[in-house]
């Protein structure tokens, strides 16, 4: 196989493309994905000499931004209603995938103050096209974000790429990562930039093995079966999940964007949770959400204690439960208050959303759920 000729052809093709307009960069990035790993460095090189550099595998940085990984001016603005609106449009290449994208982004919106709105005339927006990469933070103007079937369209993968656009780096690139993982450099593929460490803002929140922003143990391994990342001290801790945002992923978005949200994710097969301060009385004006998301099967929820201020139509304090991952999902249990009987519910799928709300009046001890 004439490898030299192939390289020359490839370089020529890249050069030709680089002279074209920015809209064509999408094709370029696609090319990067299709390249064998040991040739990918070439593409990074050519690309870095033009308009952008590929950083950490799937993050694109603008020229000159390489070390500016601390996102200062790259956050999406917050409007007066406290919501952070991110205008998006989705390439017409996508059809059935639109539903998956909408579902993954809806989960972000449900749990944080970030809202994804259909772009109309906004100058700064995210254009979703084929690929598997994103820019870091808001870059201004139209910014592409790549997603595709077979590897980059899981709920967590969609959220991963969008999290980059919101201003998040990879979890294993955090400044404190050496206390939590060991990078096995001898097994890392040639383009070692994927495993760099940056002087990151960690928002005062702990390192999260369960983050959708964490690489998997075998990602970018040059040797089948040999890990590139090993958690320490316990190497068996799972990393690299793409089921969906972790509880800390949600906390980080809410902290970075100063959202006034009380939301939690319960990703385990079983577990329990309770209203704030339980068994002491819950606070006034408390509004919290719990998203239960299990890998498979149907969510089953059983309350073992329930005591909320009783009001007509439960308009004061209530628990409301949705059959899905958002407040737009069908209602499983409409506003419920008082002292019981204890609700027991089954979702039709693997997600269930529990909303708790109290007004500024009487409070009671709240609830505790057990599964
Ligand atoms: Zn990434």
UniProtKB/TrEMBL annotation:
Q: Which organism is it from?
A: Nothoprocta perdicaria
Q: Which residues form the Peptidase M12A domain?
A: 67-260
Kindly state which keywords UniProt assigns to this record, in alphabetical order. Answer: Cytoplasm, Cytoplasmic vesicle, Disulfide bond, Fertilization, Hydrolase, Metal-binding, Metalloprotease, Protease, Signal, Zinc
Q: Under which name does UniProt file this protein?
A: Metalloendopeptidase
Which SUPFAM superfamilies does this entry report, sorted A to Z? Metalloproteases ('zincins'), catalytic domain, Spermadhesin, CUB domain
Q: Which residues form the signal peptide?
A: none
Q: What InterPro entries does its record include? A: CUB_dom, MetalloPept_cat_dom_sf, Peptidase_M12A, Peptidase_Metallo, Sperma_CUB_dom_sf, ZnMP_hatching_enz
Protein location:
Cytoplasmic vesicle, Secretory vesicle, Cortical granule
Q: Does the keyword Calcium apply?
A: no
All residue ranges annotated as the CUB domain in the record:
262-371
Q: Which GO terms describe its biological process?
A: proteolysis; single fertilization
Cofactor binding remark: Binds 1 zinc ion per subunit.
Q: Which GO terms describe its cellular component?
A: cortical granule
Cite the binding residues for Zn(2+).
Answer: 160, 164, 170
Q: What is its EC number?
A: 3.4.24.-
**Record-annotated disulphide pairs:** 71-74
Cofactor(s) the protein requires to work: Zn(2+)
Q: Which residues form the active site?
A: 161
Q: Show the Pfam families listed in the entry.
A: Astacin, CUB
Could you tell me which PANTHER family the record lists for this protein? ASTACIN-LIKE METALLOENDOPEPTIDASE-RELATED, DISCOIDIN, CUB, EGF, LAMININ , AND ZINC METALLOPROTEASE DOMAIN CONTAINING
Q: Does the keyword Zinc apply?
A: yes
GO molecular function: any one?
metalloendopeptidase activity
Q: What is the lineage of its organism?
A: Eukaryota, Metazoa, Chordata, Craniata, Vertebrata
């Amino acid at each position: 196989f004439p490898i030299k000729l192939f390289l020359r052809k490839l370089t020529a093709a890249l050069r030709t493309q680089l002279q074209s307009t920015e809209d064509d960069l999408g094709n370029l990035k696609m090319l990067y994905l299709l390249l064998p790993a040991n040739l990918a460095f070439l593409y990074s090189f050519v690309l870095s000499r033009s308009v952008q550099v590929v950083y950490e595998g799937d993050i694109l940085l603008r020229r000159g931004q390489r070390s500016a990984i601390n996102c200062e001016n790259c956050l999406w603005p917050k409007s007066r209603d406290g919501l952070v609106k991110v205008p998006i449009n989705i390439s017409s290449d996508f059809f059935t995938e639109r539903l998956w994208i909408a579902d993954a982004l809806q989960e972000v919106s449900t749990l944080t103050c970030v809202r994804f709105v259909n772009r109309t005339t906004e100058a700064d927006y995210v254009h979703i096209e084929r690929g598997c990469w994103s820019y870091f933070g808001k870059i201004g103007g139209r910014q592409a974000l790549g997603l595709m079937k077979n590897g980059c369209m899981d709920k967590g993968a969609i959220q991963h790429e969008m999290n980059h656009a919101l201003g998040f780096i990879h979890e294993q690139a955090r400044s404190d990562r050496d206390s939590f993982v060991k990078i096995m450099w001898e097994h890392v593929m040639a383009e070692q930039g994927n495993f760099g460490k940056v002087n990151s803002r960690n928002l005062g929140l702990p390192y999260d093995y369960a983050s959708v922003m964490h690489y998997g143990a075998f990602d970018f391994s040059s040797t089948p079966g040999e890990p590139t990342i090993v958690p320490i001290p316990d190497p068996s801790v799972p990393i690299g999940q793409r089921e969906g945002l972790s509880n800390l992923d949600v906390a980080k978005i809410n902290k970075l964007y100063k959202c006034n949200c009380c939301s939690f994710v319960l990703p385990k097969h079983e577990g329990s949770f309770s209203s704030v301060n339980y068994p002491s009385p819950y606070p006034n004006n408390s509004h919290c959400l719990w998203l239960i998301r299990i890998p498979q099967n149907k969510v089953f929820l059983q309350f073992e204690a329930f005591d909320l201020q009783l009001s007509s139509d439960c308009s004061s304090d209530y628990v409301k439960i949705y059959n899905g991952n958002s407040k737009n999902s069908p209602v499983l249990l409409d506003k419920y208050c008082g002292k019981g009987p204890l609700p027991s519910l089954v979702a039709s799928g693997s997600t269930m959303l529990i909303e708790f709300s109290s007004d500024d009046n009487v409070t009671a001890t709240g609830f505790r759920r057990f599964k």
